Amino acid sequence: MYVKSVNLINFRNYENIKIDLSPKLNLFLGNNAQGKTNLLESIYIAAIGKSYRVTKDRDLINFKKEKAYIGVEAETSRGTRFVEFKFQRDAKKIVRINKLELNRLSELSGNINVVIFAPEDLNLVKSGPSERRAFLDTEISQIRPRYRYNLAKYSKIIFQRNKLLKSRGRINADQLEPWDIQLADVGSDIILDRMGFIEKLSCISRDIHKKITDGKESLDIEYRSSFPIDKSSKQEIEKSYYGCLCSSRAKDMEKGNTEYGPHKDDIDIELNGVSCRTFGSQGQQRTSALSLKLAEVELIKEEVGDYPILLLDDVLSELDSDRRKYLISTFEKVQTIITSTDDVNLLDNESKRIFRIEDGSIFR
């Protein structure tokens, strides 16, 4: 899988650009605040359906304009995928694949797969649970299109249950019953997908981590549920979650919030049997984050049959020589799109293309 071309109109600081990319290595050089990250963001949006930097679509539109456009053409093992996004300040965005408009954003999942590695991802281990849940949700949505649909459904149910809980004295516990049944049903699907993903990711990342550390460290990842789970079947998880919701109704009514469920879960990352977040050095935490990101690449290939596109946002300068060397060894397998302020002199790769970005213009 690789991106053939990117067309941007009034997207961020790009007025109107179209570039053709190498199927292998692409290096975008430029000073800060010139548009390097904006370019990666546009490819990410075409794959995932949303930005990893902002939550409001209108923030993607050039502040002097009313509309913006992203067009990304990619070649995959299932054929050409031409993904288009049209944004308007006061209207719903339009998304098309091969000229066909999508009814749901979840239909976008899996058409183009990406793994992004930015400096903030190096803090994945020591960041909060919400960042690690977002990491899970983004990656699972790429290989399980139904997962994104379940997430959206779960969020709506949680919103309604919490709205009811905030009524406090005006409700009784029995009114929560229909919401609890729905939460247990959808929530158990989400947890089951997460547990399966973590199990596979843990195996792959453990092998990668051993190679990076010359076998000195053993990396383990486990899913940590906010309520006890004894079995890993859909029925058992649903039963456990429903029981937890019922028993916590009084507490939830008191707090006005749903205290248990996949929206509260986390992952444990351990090195040699101890918490990497608590006891790991900054170098160990960064190596663990790198192992997880590279494991994503291999897991997506295993699940969908295509290697994803690797997006590196000015991250090479954040890695020491050993980690950088291992990351570079991945480039031969996948299309890699790199941004940097310096010519990092990465590879003697004959198919690499070097671009320079200056104030929203791209030159070769």
Automatic annotation (TrEMBL):
Species assigned in the record: Andreesenia angusta
HAMAP family: RecF
Residues the entry annotates as binding ATP: 30-37
BP terms from Gene Ontology: DNA replication; DNA synthesis involved in DNA repair; double-strand break repair; SOS response
Subcellular location: Cytoplasm
GO molecular function: ATP binding; single-stranded DNA binding
Pfam families to which the protein is assigned, alphabetical: SMC_N (PF02463)
Protein name: DNA replication and repair protein RecF
Chief subcellular location: cytoplasm
InterPro entries per UniProt: DNA-binding_RecF, DNA-binding_RecF_CS, P-loop_NTPase, RecF/RecN/SMC_N, RecF_2
Highest rank taxon of the organism: Bacteria
Keywords, ordered alphabetically: ATP-binding, Cytoplasm, DNA damage, DNA repair, DNA replication, DNA-binding, Nucleotide-binding, SOS response
Coiled coil: none
